Amino acid sequence: MKDIEHVFFDLDHTLWDFEKNSDLAFQKVFNRNNITIELEVFLKIYKPVNFKYWKLFSEEKVTKSELRYGRLKDTFDVLNYTVSDDLIDEIAINYLEFLPDFNHLFDGTFEILDYLKEKYELHVITNGFDEVQHKKLKSSNIHHYFNKIITSESVGAKKPNPKVFNYALDLAKADKDNSIMIGDNLDADVQGALSVGMQAIYCNFENNTSINGEFISVNSLIEIKQYL
Q1: What is the pLDDT of residues 118-173, one digit of tens each?
Q2: What is a single Pfam family found in this protein's UniProt entry (predicted)?
Q3: Which residues have a Cβ under 8 Å from the Cβ of 157 and sit 6 or more positions away?
Q4: Of 60, 66, 109, 152, which sees the most CB atoms within 10 A?
């Protein structure tokens, strides 16, 4: 790790606590739109549906608008909750509007960023929507740590597509040999980075014991200090 000069972070599920913030955003959305389903019941169905749609989105099999509509429509259908397309559109808009209002970060985020900022140039590579991701970074007060922020929308491709990583390296004036990617997704972050010759650190926050490969695995952000 002595040759590392550039550290690229994923955002959601790595630094920014997506699950907690998303739950809070949906509570606000439900209150605004008088949705009478219990939030816990809705989220139990929604989360795996959302995961499925994001996987399809990363594989470029659905569009941004299809993701935003489909994940809600499918969830309400499973719950047999009648809702108009206009209301689904309103919920989708409200959700993305409210999501950056909540700024819970994983334990150790500020500590590890303060530590790394003194030694490396820091950047973000995220598959999230451009405007929303920038708002998240600013509302959680970590925007200033990063020199370059690369979103899939700005590139026109999504991790693990090599185009994203090569674009990020070029934008940061970095080389694959002096760069490392840190993220929670084995396919999008870790394998995506390895495929272009970068090193990678896997944020194994769920303590998945079956994980192995040619990359470092950490169970907390602070553990990164042992390697960088």
Answers
A1: 999 999 999 988 989 999 999 999 999 999 999 998 999 999 999 999 999 999 99
A2: HAD_2
A3: 60, 163, 164, 167
A4: 152
Q: Cβ(79)–Cβ(36) under 8 Å? A: no
Calpha distance 73→186 (Å, rounded): 28
- Continuous H helices in 84-228: 85-98, 109-117, 130-139, 152-155, 162-171, 192-195
Alpha-carbon distances, residue 61 vs 56, 76, 83, 131, 184 (angstroms) = 5, 22, 25, 22, 22
Q: Is 181 helix (H, G, I), strand (E, B) or coil?
A: strand
Q: Which amino acid is at 81?
A: Y
3-state SS of 136-171 is: HHHHCCCHHHCCEEEEHHHHCCCCCCHHHHHHHHHH
Q: Is the dihedral of CA 162, 113, 183, 179 positive or negative?
A: positive
The correct answer on CATH 1.10.150.240 for the domain covering 18-101 is yes
Question: Where exactly are the structural domains of the chain?
Answer: 6-16+103-226, 18-101
Q: Which tokens is 193 given?
A: 């980075």
Q: Is the Cα dihedral 208, 137, 170, 60 positive or negative? A: positive
DSSP state at residue 110: H
**In angstroms, rounded to a whole number, what is the distance separating the alpha carbons of residues 125 and 157?**
12
The tokens describing 95, both together, are: 């959700």
3-state secondary structure of 60: coil
How much is the pTM? 0.92
